[in-house]
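Appendix C. Worked example: CBD9-like protein
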Amino acid sequence: MGLFNSLSQAVCLLSFATSLAGAQKAEGSAFTDATSQISFWNTKVASTGGYEFGIALPPDGSAKNDEYIGRLVGVIGAKGGWSGISHKGPMTNSLLLLAWADGDKVTTSFRWATEYSLPDPYGGNATLTEISHKVNATHFELVYQCQGCWNWEQDAETTASQDPATVDSLALGYAQGKQSPAPVTDVNGRISFHDNGFGIYTVDVANARQEGYEGFLGGSSSSPNSPSSGSSNSSSSSGSSGSSGSSGSSGSSQPQLVC
Ligand code: HEM
Ligand SMILES: *[C@@H]1O[C@H](CO)[C@@H](O)[C@H](O)[C@H]1NC(C)=O
Ligand SMILES: *[C@@H]1O[C@H](CO)[C@@H](O)[C@H](O)[C@H]1NC(C)=O
Ligand SMILES: *[C@@H]1O[C@H](CO)[C@@H](O)[C@H](O)[C@H]1NC(C)=O
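Step 2, the predicted output written as structure tokens:
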């Protein structure tokens, strides 16, 4: 334990220095996914190979305060890799979600960390429903609905939240590791350190809200190609049909990075 602490302190110092040197930027803009026609507030992080996280929240005043639709794009390198988010910004005391490619599937895992070391499986009730996914030679992409994802209960004593209905700005964290969890098939597999970047950025809640939210879920609304929950789409190697950059960018902002 003493050894592990000093190890992770060393890792911490090292990665802190790296992240300062790397000066990763996070930039947000409006984005509509060409395949699903779902609109997101999409943040791109300048990691090696790329990281993108798009978020769509139900419209203001919706009763659905504890969910969102997410789109996560992560790089796949020589050893695979994982990409993840923190639903509150920091690694600790916040719902963590990781995703990684396993063949042409995308596997996800909810985790929880009380310190800066290997996170535990999440003990609460967060539900991820895949809307679509893609895997090609260099990237994976996952579009999903996340329910029970803003109010967390790791155990009876450990609760936390970030409620989009009560804040103007959401703090979110990103993290990316160059090595897939092991075994790659195991949602509770061992995670390697985020050696391809980590940090915190913010998203204005108003930018993330989407009037068409219900339609994106296949409900009553006028969205073309509404995907139905649980359907998955994997297209290996040739990948996406034109998910090129942001469309209809309604002004870029440069969220603050707090590493
Ligand atoms: C073996 C697993 C992991 C270890 C040893 C680890 C270790 C650390 C350390 C030492 C820091 C602090 C670095 C600094 O401030 O200089 C950190 C930050 C961070 N980690 Fe992790 N981490 C792990 C897994 C994860 C996972 C799975 C996620 C998310 C899915 C994550 C998200 C973050 C974020 C967002 C930060 C920056 C914000 C903060 O400092 O709290 N980490 N991690
Ligand atoms: C967990 O959350 C899902 C989705 O919100 C819900 O359908 C289910 O009833 C919940 N289960 C428990 C045990 O709370
Ligand atoms: C998956 O996506 C590809 C290309 O975007 C499309 O041709 C195919 O019909 C989709 N499959 C499913 C099951 O949605
Ligand atoms: C691979 O997938 C990513 C994410 O969907 C996409 O941005 C990229 O253009 C794809 N690459 C190719 C060669 O299709």
